[in-house]
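Supplementary Methods, section 5.1.

A reviewer requested that the exact input to the structure prediction be made available. We therefore reproduce it here, unchanged from the version used in the analyses.
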Amino acid sequence: DEAKLKENVEALEREYAMDEAKLKENVEALEREYASGNNEACQKKIEGCKVLLVGASVVPPFERNQLPSEQALKLARSAFEIAVMVSLRLQDEGLFERNFSLLQPFYTELRNVIGTSDREHLILGLNLLRLLVQNRISDFHVELEKLSPEAHGSGVVQKVVDIEQALLEGAYKQILEARENVLDETFGYFMDLLIETIRDEIASSCEAAYDTLSFAGAQKLLMLQSEADMRTILQKRNWNATGNTFVFQHKDEGDAAIPSMETIQRMLGYARELERIV
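The structure derived from this sequence is encoded token-by-token as follows.
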């Protein structure tokens, strides 16, 4: 009857209020652990928050016209944002990607419901940088198109767009300078991965373009400051050395002129431009 129905509805409302209060308490505790820098404690709190979010049905996709409260959605967003940031502290690229996939709906279809968070533009920029690191140029531009005008025009996102342009042009010195002047310390992990990828591409081009290359010449081309860093790369690439000169073996010997670093950069730029077109 109507009285029984009312009683059940009130009971559900009390239960939901209790769940939301518990969620708020846990997310606030997570924020404190994140501020303290305790990654292990953060991971435990994150898992606890995820369990609460699933139990309270505050994880997308949502039924039409059955959205959780605005506060619950904002708490969920905060929990997933911290999960994303902690994954960077742990230097776990896969974990970053998984956590961002949980967070992204709060930045897209729920944007008009809960507005923009303080961390949103930073995390969107980090995700774009991740796509550059993974050489997913097409996905980079797809994600860029999804951004709101406000996010697209933010300093963080524009910085990543500048990095993508520098990659396309082969302006690797500009990218090294960007690493030294990151907008936020959280950019360090992906920037280091990106620079490692760039050096791998340059090294591959050197192997294809040169018959021999001096140690100093290789160090200059790879933009390395120390001999120790250079030796790390030569071990990784298994380069053969005769004295202070690297000797590269080619299947087809040719009389082509040895290209300069400018030519190598242009070749890599063309390759990236073709990838974008495809």
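The radius of gyration is 25 Å. These observations are discussed further in the main text.
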